[in-house]
Design goal:
alpha+beta, two-stranded parallel sheet, two-stranded antiparallel ribbon, 4 strands, globular, 198 residues
C-alpha cells in the first residue's frame, strides 16, 4: 500500500513541478548561456534501486569542471569519506551559485521522478564510485530508491560527517512511511523559503 501511495505522490507532484519547470526553463537556460559556454543541463550517473541511472540537473559549474577535480583535492572539506566538497568551489558559475542557493538546479530531476528512476524522498543519489566506499553495514542503501530530498538533506548533509549522512539515509530506509515522507517534504519546503539555512 505504501509503495503505491508513494508512487502516486511522486507522479502528482512531479507533473505539477514539471509544469513550473517548463515555464522557467527558458529563463534559466538563457542565464546559463549568457554566463558562459557549455550545455544547459548536466547529466550525472547515480545509484538508485540497485542500478546506475542518469539524472539531470541544470549545469552550475563551468565547462570541464570534472577534469579540474583532481587539482582541488587538497581543498576537500570532507576528508572523512569519499564525498568531495569545497566551500566556494571556484568551478561554480555565478548563475550556478544562485541556482544552488534556491535548489533550482535540482528541478530537472523531476523528469527522473516521473520516469521512476528516483523518488521525491529517499537516500541521497550518490555516484557509483562513492557508494562502493560505503562500510559493509550501509551497502544495502544501494538497493534503495534514491530521492531528490531526504533526511540527510534536510539535516544539512554537506556539513555532516560522512558516517552521519549514511546513518540518516539508513534510518529513512528502515523506517520509511508516508507520514515520514510528508514530514520530509514539508521540511524541504520550509528550507526553500529560507535558503540561507540550507
Amino acid at each position: 500500500m505504501y509503495v503505491a501511495v508513494k508512487r502516486g505522490l511522486d507522479l502528482i507532484i512531479s507533473v505539477v513541478g514539471l509544469i513550473f519547470l517548463i515555464i522557467i526553463t527558458p529563463f534559466i537556460a538563457l542565464a546559463i548561456k549568457l554566463d558562459g559556454s557549455g550545455p544547459v543541463f548536466f547529466r550525472a550517473r547515480r545509484v538508485s534501486a540497485g542500478r546506475v541511472v542518469t539524472i539531470f540537473k541544470f549545469r552550475t559549474m563551468r565547462l570541464g569542471a570534472e577534469t579540474e577535480k583532481s587539482s582541488l583535492l587538497h581543498l576537500n572539506e570532507r576528508p572523512d569519506g569519499p564525498f568531495f566538497k569545497v566551500c566556494d568551489d571556484p568551478r561554480v558559475t555565478r548563475v550556478g551559485r544562485v541556482l544552488r542557493k534556491y535548489w533550482l538546479d535540482e528541478l530537472p530531476q523531476l523528469w527522473n521522478v516521473l520516469h521512476g528512476d528516483i523518488s521525491l524522498v529517499g537516500p541521497r543519489p550518490y555516484e557509483p564510485e562513492e557508494i562502493d566506499c560505503y562500510p559493509p553495514d550501509f551497502q544495502f542503501l544501494r538497493y534503495e530508491k534514491a530521492g531528490i530530498t531526504g533526511l540527510s538533506q534536510i539535516n544539512g548533509s554537506w556539513n555532516l560527517p560522512f558516517v552521519k549522512v549514511l546513518e540518516y539515509d539508513a534510518h529513512y530506509a528502515r523506517h520509511k512511511s508516508l507520514w515520514l515522507d510528508i514530514k520530509i517534504l514539508t521540511r524541504t519546503a520550509l528550507l526553500l523559503r529560507h535558503p540561507s539555512g540550507v
